[in-house]
Amino acid sequence: MIILVPKAFRVFPFYEESTIEFPSTLATFKDICQEVPFYYDITGNIRPWEQKHDFLPIMFQWWCEEEMQLAKYYKQRNPLAAKEMMRTMLAVFIDSLFWLNDRKVDGIDDLQHSVNSLIHKPVNSVERLHYLLSEPNRYHTFVQLKALFSELRKLYAKMKVMEKGQ
Q1: Residues 71-117 pLDDT 10s
Q2: CB burial class (10 A; 0-12, 13-18, 19+) of residue 46?
Q3: pTM above 0.90?
Q4: Radius of gyration for the alpha carbons in the chain, expressed in angstroms and rounded
Q5: Pairing between β-strand 2-4 and β-strand 19-21 as defined by DSSP bridges
Q6: Given CA atoms 155, 156, 161, 165 in this order, what sign does their dihedral have?
Q7: Are 31 and 132 in contact (CB under 8 A)?
Q8: What would the 3-class secondary structure string for the chain be?
Q9: Tell me, what's the pLDDT at 155?
């Protein structure tokens, strides 16, 4: 199956081409997100932002699993080995940030404006995301992404507690 990538998603480090081949062998949520970043935002086949309590725990657990491998790559001073995993985890973070706010990602081309409009977000998210996207393979990007995931998890936990209290 061929997927049309909207212009708003054709941004480094995610997409350069206007179409991508969707492998028919992909079956799991994680496999799809890994192979085709922002798949659900682009296609709307499933709407995880409307079911954040089902999907965000999966995203956070996925980050915990990948974080250890990324740490090994950077400890070995091998950012090239981390490149694809970092690209995927950047997309997972952006999706998690938007889905936490019950919104899909409309595009990456104007991320500054989109993130500014979010209610729940880590401090200085716009500036930090700008850095992550401009230097996706550096060790400092990994450190920043790790901090952002930690902060987002805390925001999610706080949100769950507040929702139960209502």
Answers
A1: 999 999 999 999 999 999 999 999 999 999 999 999 999 999 999 99
A2: middle
A3: yes
A4: 15
A5: antiparallel
A6: positive
A7: no
A8: CEEECCHHHCCCCCCCCCEEECCCCCCCHHHHHHHCCCHHHHHCCCCHHHCHHHHHHHHHHHHHHHHHHHHHHHHCCCHHHHHHHHHHHHHHHHHHHHHHCCCCCCCCCCHHHHHHCCCCCCCCHHHHHHHHHHCCCCHHHHHHHHHHHHHHHHHHHHHHHHHHHC
A9: 97
Amino acid at 76: Q
Quote the longest CA-to-CA distance of the chain.
48
| Distance (Å, whole) CA 37 – CA 96 | 12
Tell me which residue has tokens 């990007």.
Answer: 141
Q: Are 88 and 30 in contact (CB under 8 A)?
A: no
Nearest-10 Cα torsion for 146, 117, 57, 27 = -100
